[in-house]
What does this fold into?
Amino acid sequence: MKCNTFNGLHGRSLPLATGAKLVNPELVVIAEGGDGDMYGEGGNHFIQAARKNTNITLLAHNNQVYGLTKGQASPTSEPGFTTKVQTEGVKISMLDPLTTALSLNAGFVARSFSGDIEHLSWVIQQAIQHRGFSLVDILMPCISFNKLNTFKWYKSRIYKLEDEHWDTSNKAAAYTRAEEWGEKIPIGIFYKAERPPYEDLISALKGKPLIDREYNPQRVSKLFNEFI
It folds into this structure.
């Protein structure tokens, strides 16, 4: 991809993405990371980003395991899933990123599958075009550490909401479908609604974008001196 990037700390993509968007609203801003990254270490940032509704897109690579740190269970690992750390299997329920985002009033909530590039590309395009916070939860097999949720496992269960002429404005129905997991797993745009993004509500951001304003370090020198 031809883009400017910032590789920050694990779990901290969303604060960086929020800062970039607030400073320069002209940018198309995408945050990306794994399920452990976004829903584990970065879980609180995920909650606040959905609440704030800053105009950014989150691409969460959900392989239901910590794929880059040797295969321990992540927040989206299924109960009973065994790892070298969880030798008796996961004892707690899965975190559901879709119902979480819906409960936080996120304006765009979607899921797709890395094994269907055409569908995934379309969902990402729709997410970027949406004005406000957009979640795309991407089901993505980890061939190294997750021998349960394999490509075949996903492929035999996935169906597309679009094939059912889905109404993306029905939040209650979206919540019900988002809870569906097991023998059948829906993918697509679950919910879409317009509400003012965070940057439109902040009076200090009215007028020129921050990036275009005059920068004078002398104006804050007095403040800095107070801490010396």
In short: Strands lie at 30-34, 57-62, 108-113, 134-139, 158-160, 185-192. The longest strand covers residues 185-192.
